[in-house]
Each structure stands twice: as structure tokens, then as C-alpha cells.
Amino acid sequence: MSFNVSISQSAGASLSTAGGGNSYSTISYSGSTEAASYPGIGIRPDGGERRAAKRSTSPAKRVIRRLHGFFIQEEGQEARVAFVENDKLVHYFLPLKLFREGDVTAENQPFEMDEFEAIVEGVEMKGYKVRPSAFPRDSRIEPIALDTRSEENLRFVLERAKNAED
């Protein structure tokens, strides 16, 4: 075991070293710490070789763009999502894993998707991170009672939609 030894001189006390030698900065010592009982000598275990602190090697991420969209449905290993770009709804099929990791799984759940880039050891990488704008527990679907005029309008719209499909 190795110990660091520091010898200090208290006010008015004289300090002498045995054998006329100089004081030690580090000594190898096995046994009890009897020297700790002498005034002016402090012994503490040495931590071994000092190593320089390592910096975190995680790359700095730079967000390129942030997209807002909503989750439509799962289709196999893909997620059908929609983004609003230039006041138009644009549908995409993206990996479902990306949305599960971001906790976006409910139909019509809004989310944000960041496209980011990072440079690690000279290699440029791009990635995507999804996070929910609202959680499924934050909303609920409740039927509402329609008045007579709203019911007529609804029937009219549904009838036109039915005829449009034919």
C-alpha cells in the first residue's frame, strides 16, 4: 500500500527529520499508521497514479429542423404519420421503432420530430428524434349531442361522400 505523507510545522514548533534526511513526499508503508499520532505528520492512502480527467466523447448535436405532425396508425413495422408543410397535409411512412422509442403510439397523437446532425471523429451523421406534443391520457373522445341543423348537415356531408366513392 502506498501513502502520501505531508509534514507540516505548527507555529513555534521545530521540525527535525530522523537521520538528517529530507522529508518524504510518498512512501511505501505496510502495517499500522502509527506515524499519524505524531504531531505535524499526516498520512492518507495514495490513490495510485493520477490520471487526467477524460472529456465526454458524446458529440454535440445540432438540430437542422423541427417538424410537427401527428401519428395516424401502425402498419406492420412502419408508422403512417402526417406532417403539415406549407399548409398542406403530407403523409409519410416511417420506422415504427422511432415512434415507440419516443412514446408516440396513439392514433391522432401529435408529436414533434427533430432532424439533427452530429460530427464524430470527422464523420457526419444525421438522425431523428421523436417526442410527443401531448400524451394519450391528455385527451378523451366524447360523443356530443347534435342539434337538428347539425344532424342535417352531417347527413348531407355523409351522403355526398358516399356518392363520391361510387
Can you count the helices?
A: 2
CATH class of the largest domain: Mainly Beta
The chain-level structural class is mainly beta
How much helix is in the residues?
10-25%
Order of helices and strands: EEEEEEHEEH
The CATH level-2 architecture of the largest domain is identified as Beta Barrel
- How many domains, as an integer? 2
CATH topology of the largest domain: OB fold (Dihydrolipoamide Acetyltransferase, E2P)
Low-confidence stretches: 8-36
Secondary structure: number of strands: 8
Model description:
It is a single chain. β5 and β6 form a beta hairpin. It is built from 2 helices and 8 strands, in the order ββββββαββα. It is mainly beta and 166 residues long. It has 2 domains: 44 residues, no CATH class; 77 residues, Beta Barrel (OB fold (Dihydrolipoamide Acetyltransferase, E2P)), CATH 2.40.50. Helices cover 14% and strands 40% of the residues.
Give a summary of the structure in a few sentences:
The chain has 166 residues and is mostly beta strands.
Task: Provide tags for this entry.
3-stranded antiparallel beta sheet; about 170 residues; about 40% strand; OB fold (Dihydrolipoamide Acetyltransferase, E2P); mainly beta; 8 strands
